[in-house]
Amino acid sequence: MSLSTPTRDPVRTASLLVKAAERGDETLDAELAEVLGPHTETSVDWVPVVQALGRSLQASYNALRKAEDACADTETEYAAAQRRREDSVNALKDELRSLRITVDAVFGTKALTQLSLDRTVSGEPLALLRLGNTARDGLGELSGFPALRRGMALNVRLHEAPLGSALYELNQAVMAVRRAERAFRSACRDRDALLGELTKRGRDAVESLDKLARRASRH
């Protein structure tokens, strides 16, 4: 007779064994007793068996818990970086819209075309950075454009500083997202590798318990 169904989950079994070893239980707790089922009535002293298996699994189990925490932490940081990038996208879009309104009012559509502001402002970060850089680089060339009405002028400096700041912030935010994504994926790969290791070791522990239970049932 094999152990009961809960032991088919090797990670769950490993968790039960490690926790029993950490507590130093002198008797089997309810969950482990349920796993062992009728075999608890045999002459086998299951407590030292459970303690030994739990201690053998402890390093792998603790490493997995630590890796899971790291994966969760880096996921939180990744989400925060994505929110920062979204805020930076919106800030740069606002600057470009403001510049477009001003340039259109002072110089008209030809100037908008010169700055590539005659197109829809994309929300995709890299496309938005390209558009913003094109607009910033073209600001100095507007001095050659005639104003639509006498007396109208564009103070380039009023737009250069906030546009440059918004471009810098979005560029930094894009790089932060890339770093956070790499860290998140790396942490999750480490977690998955440790999960595979604990699964294997937990399966070995299940087999050890099964063998001992079968031997006990023959006596």
Task: Give a verbal description of the structure.
With 219 residues, the chain is an all-alpha fold. It has one domain (5-217). It is built from six helices and no strands. The protein is rod-shaped and about 105 Å long. The two termini are 13 Å apart. Keywords: Coiled coil. Residues 57-84 form a coiled coil.
The number of distinct structural domains comes to 1
Mean pLDDT: 86
Series of secondary-structure elements, N-terminal to C-terminal: HHHHHH
Q: Helix fraction?
A: over 70%
> Mind describing the biggest β-sheet?
none
Count of distinct strands: 0
Outline: rod-shaped
In terms of structural class, how would the helical and strand content be classed? mainly alpha
Walk me through the topology:
Blueprint: H1 10-23, H2 30-36, H3 46-106, H4 109-114, H5 125-138, H6 156-217
Summary of the model, kept short:
With 219 residues, this protein is mostly helical.
